[in-house]
Structures are given as structure tokens and as C-alpha cells.
Predict the structure.
Amino acid sequence: MHRCGYCMPCPAGVNIPGNFDAYNYAHLFDDLAGARFRYSVFFTEEQRAGHCAACGECLEKCPQKIEIRDWMRR
Ligand code: SF4
């Protein structure tokens, strides 16, 4: 899947595109358990969406103006 990555790096260490991948995987394949498993295995604590400090730096960098902070909470 194509990932642009303009939002990176995140000062808090969040793997923003990776979190979107996990979210998309869960919904596209209707496999929340599988997505959670991959998340627990492949993401460090810092890379997880819950580590987002809501600083807003990524919002300024996103050419598509995606509300990344809100998505990280989801
Ligand atoms: S809003 Fe969250 S995800 Fe975006 S740069 Fe700040 S800490 Fe990282």
C-alpha cells in the first residue's frame, strides 16, 4: 500500500503511517484481532497511536490536511 510519509518524523516517535496501516487493515479485512496482534508484535510502545502528544506538527505537514490527531485517538 502506498504511504506518503510527509507527516514524519513525529517528535513523539509515533509511527503515523504504520498506525493508519493497522487501522485500515482492521477495517478492510474486518480483522480487528489480527490487526491488534500485529500491532502488539511490530510496534514499540512509542510508535503506537496512544503515544501521540497531540502537538499538531503533523497536521501542518500533511498535504491532504488529514486530522491526524483525531485519527490517532481512534
Ligand atoms: S500530533 Fe501526535 S502524531 Fe502528530 S506529530 Fe504530534 S505527537 Fe506526532
In short: The chain has one domain: 16-73. The first helix runs from residue 16 to 28. Residues 59 and 65 are 6 Å apart (CA to CA). The mean pLDDT is 94.
